[in-house]
Design a protein that fits this description.
alpha+beta; 8-stranded antiparallel sheet; 760 residues; Calcium-transporting ATPase, cytoplasmic transduction domain A; 28 helices; binds adenosine-5'-diphosphate; binds magnesium ion; Rossmann fold; Alpha-Beta Plaits
Length: 760
């Protein structure tokens, strides 16, 4: 089973997405198909033994679409290379050409539409006696000119809509183009018949000498103009990816055979030594081996301050060196780099569907056939009820106007754009702030969060504890402790091991080493079994010890690491971890959003409470084992809370998976960005506040969009059908219907673009 996302060519509207999805779902071997009009792409899972991308593309080609089957993976390229080759870079170029072509056609139609409006206006004004009537010559002139203009507009400018009609007749698949196509061509054909057989026609239907060439011209021009503006703004919604791609260096200066050579980044391999000069972009991920510098990481972390890097520090592709010179060893190249992951993730997230879209999708999928039915019904009802009071010919004329109006105004184009465009902008804005969002569903869920559960170490505190005190442990016992901690990955272990290195204390052989989850560890050194960990661990050993002295420390926010044998406590060290400077404000901001903050930690009660009080946290769960953490999340959810959990993702993994939204505090390259719902790139908890605000802004944008999109259709259909005619004498001209329709899409996309400018 293969799952991949392909760009689609030829998508014009949201109902195209529905048609494509349905076609693929009916195709043998396809288990999932999700088409997205916002990104003009489709996510498909298919059985490779039964079908392939080329065959899949053939399935939709008769309907006017095709898949871009060369994906990064199929060509063995990294996201950036692929983008440069065919992907985004190319499709953007194609898209620009397409938009230019759209512009040219629209420009050619506008003067014709202006003439139509002029003639139409003159006729109306002269009817009311505001201006004199048209002279016979000009009447005759326009009488012959209008059909010509309409022919051009319908067959050249309106070609996509006519193709929509052809597709409907051949395959029974109707999209929004079909609606517009039917509406405008019916107006055209009717007018054509009236003018071609003028004499006979007027004899039979004396009042219906009116033609609707102007309707065809103006409606198509408006819609084409709307589509052009929409395409232009849609292109802007996706510029976050483009910016990310722009971060990628094209070449790298490496040392090969002792010489400096400039090579393309595609040729950089693991272990290459890369030279970075002042102002250069870091081409791949790696570890500094020589020299030092400050690096501007703002593009991937959102933090403006350059970060100091020295030997042993990690550097990421896409960041920019300031003025130092250094060398580093490539550890991750091509598609493995953090930047490549970020790009991939943003792309995927932008193409994913928010649950809120399901309703809009459902509606737009049934909308088109329903509208077709309504439009014919409208015509029928006009004839049925209008013929009596108005006379057949007048009723037919109104009926036809209503028929065209309904078809034009009811296009659910805006409905299909409402959610995806806002998601694209929201996800892109997040990426620029160092907030990586996995999918649209996460972005949607985040705005409802009312409890945030956080881990202490590394989330509230820096996660870089240091030894602040040693009690009763001589050098040989410290050496035992260091030897044990050497085997652990815990930040506390790191503090102790670092201390040992500084003091040059020897490390000894450890056997039977074991981690005691949430409590500490144990192991045998020189034939003696030792335990190192917190008070819980010592309690488990059932040995007595002096709690008082330890509590004096924990009350000051320090964490004890007690070394014990099976019989007695040998002594302890105290470690302290600094609180991150932004923690306090982040908690305050979360409170301002009405969110409760709970801290879960494996640490001592007093230590945890001390830190919680400093930061302003509402509730603390100390001595929490991984299962306690997951149970706490479950309990909160049982109370009906929507829980977001932020953690370092190691011992917190089960609880993270349980939470409604999981947040990884990614610091640098070693982030599991694919697993967490949200990754805060530089591990800054205040970004969580921004992420929640972003979610709220995006959701508000989507709701506004959906409201306006529905509003246009709900008001537009009865108005255009002439439902209010018998009461108020209102009848919507198809010309206004075309205008409203074009404006609805444009306003939805513009509203989504506004998200970009909002302050977080
Ligand atoms: P947290 O991430 O909230 O600190 P952990 O489950 O990682 O939770 O750790 C819980 C507690 O277990 C720590 O606060 C510490 O007291 C003890 N502990 C864990 N690992 C070690 C270790 N390597 N050495 C000493 N104590 C440890
Ligand atoms: Mg932890």
């Amino acid at each position: 089973m293969k799952k991949d996302t392909y760009k689609i060519k030829g998508m014009h509207c949201a109902s195209c997405a529905g048609i494509i999805e349905k076609t693929f779902k009916k195709t043998e071997g396809v288990s999932l198909a999700e088409a997205n009009y916002g990104t003009e792409s489709v996510k498909i899972s298919f059985d490779e033994t039964k079908t392939n991308p080329e065959n899949l593309s053939k399935k939709i080609e008769p309907l006017g679409y095709s898949l871009v089957t060369e994906t990064a993976e199929s060509m063995g390229m990294s996201a950036e290379e692929h983008a440069a080759h065919t992907g985004i870079g190319q499709s953007k170029k194609e898209k620009l050409a397409e938009i230019l072509a759209m512009r040219n056609t629209v420009m050619s139609a506008i003067p014709l539409a202006v003439i139509s409006v002029f003639v139409m206006g003159w006729e109306i004004l002269s009817k009311y006696g505001v201006v004199g009537g048209m002279g016979d010559v000009s009447k005759e002139f326009f009488h012959h000119l209008m059909p010509l203009l309409a022919t051009y507009v319908l067959f050249v400018v309106g070609k996509p809509y006519l193709l929509g009609v052809v597709r409907f007749l051949r395959y029974g698949k109707a999209n929004m183009d079909t609606l517009i196509g039917i509406g405008t061509s019916v107006a055209f054909i009717y007018s054509f018949i009236v003018s071609a057989f003028e004499e006979t026609w007027l004899k039979n239907f004396p009042n219906v000498g009116v033609t609707y060439f102007d309707v065809t011209i103006i409606v198509i021009t408006f819609i084409a103009l709307g589509k052009y503006l929409e395409a232009k703004s849609k292109l802007k919604t996706g510029d976050a990816i483009e910016k990310l791609l722009g971060l990628q260096a094209k070449t790298a200066l490496v040392i090969r055979d002792g010489k400096e050579v400039k090579i393309s980044i595609n040729e950089v391999i693991h272990g290459d030594f890369i030279i970075i000069k002042p102002g250069a972009k870091i081409p791949v991920d790696g570890i500094v081996t020589e020299g030092e510098s400050y690096i501007d990481e703002s593009m991937i972390s959102g933090e403006p301050m350059p970060v100091h890097k020295k030997t042993g520090d990690a550097v990421s592709a896409g960041t920019i060196n300031t003025n130092g010179t250094f060398n580093f060893k490539a550890t991750k190249v091509g598609a493995e780099t953090l930047l490549a992951h970020i790009i991939k993730m943003v792309e995927d997230a932008q193409g994913s569907k928010a649950p809120i879209q399901a309703l809009a999708d459902k509606i737009s999928s049934i909308f088109v056939p329903i509208v077709l039915v309504i439009s014919f019904l409208t015509l029928g009802l006009w004839l049925l009820f209008g013929s009596g009071p108005l006379g057949f010919s007048q009723a037919f004329s109104y009926g036809l106007v209503s028929f065209v109006g309904v078809l034009v105004i009811a296009c659910p184009c805006a409905l299909g754009l409402a959610t995806p465009t806002a998601i694209i902008v929201g996800v892109g804005k997040g990426a620029r702030e160092g907030i990586l969002i996995k999918d649209a569903a996460t972005l949607e869920k985040l705005h409802q969060v009312n409890v945030v559960v956080i881990d202490k170490t590394g989330t509230i505190t820096k996660g870089k504890p240091e030894i602040v005190d040693i009690k009763d442990l001589d050098e040989s016992m410290m050496s035992v402790l260091i030897s044990l901690e050497n085997k652990s990955e815990h930040p506390i272990a790191h503090a102790i091991v670092t201390y040992g290195k500084e003091k040059n204390l020897p490390s000894q052989n450890v056997s039977n080493f074991e981690i005691i989850k949430g409590k500490g560890l144990k192991g045998v050194v020189n034939g003696i079994e030792y335990f190192a960990g917190n008070t819980k661990l010592v309690e488990d050993l059932k040995i007595t010890f002096d709690r008082n002295i330890i509590e004096q420390y924990t009350a000051q926010g320090k964490t004890p690491v007690i070394l014990a044998s099976t019989e007695k406590v040998l002594g302890f060290v105290m470690v302290a971890d600094e609180i991150k400077p932004e923690s306090q404000k982040a908690v305050k901001d979360l409170h301002a959003l009405g969110i409760k903050v709970i801290m879960l930690t494996g640490d001592e009660k007093k230590t945890a409470q001390y830190i919680a009080d400093l930061v302003g946290i509402d509730e603390v769960v100390p001595h929490a084992l991984p299962e306690d953490k997951i149970n706490k999340v479950k309990a909160l959810q049982a109370e009906g809370k929507i829980v977001a959990m932020a953690g370092d993702g190691i011992n917190d993994a089960p609880a993270l998976a349980q939470a409604d939204v999981s947040i990884a505090m990614g610091t640098g390259t070693d982030v599991a960005i694919e697993t967490a719902g949200i990754t805060l790139l530089n591990g800054d908890i205040s970004k969580l506040v921004k992420a929640i605000k972003l979610s709220k802004i995006t959701m508000r944008g989507i709701k506004q969009n959906l409201f306006w999109a529905f509003f246009y259709n709900i008001i537009g259909i009865p108005l255009a059908s002439g439902l209010f005619f018998p009461i108020f004498g209102w009848l919507l001209s198809p010309v206004f219907a075309g205008f409203a329709m074009a404006m609805s899409s444009v306003s939805v996309v513009s509203n989504s673009l506004r998200i970009k400018a909002k302050k977080l």
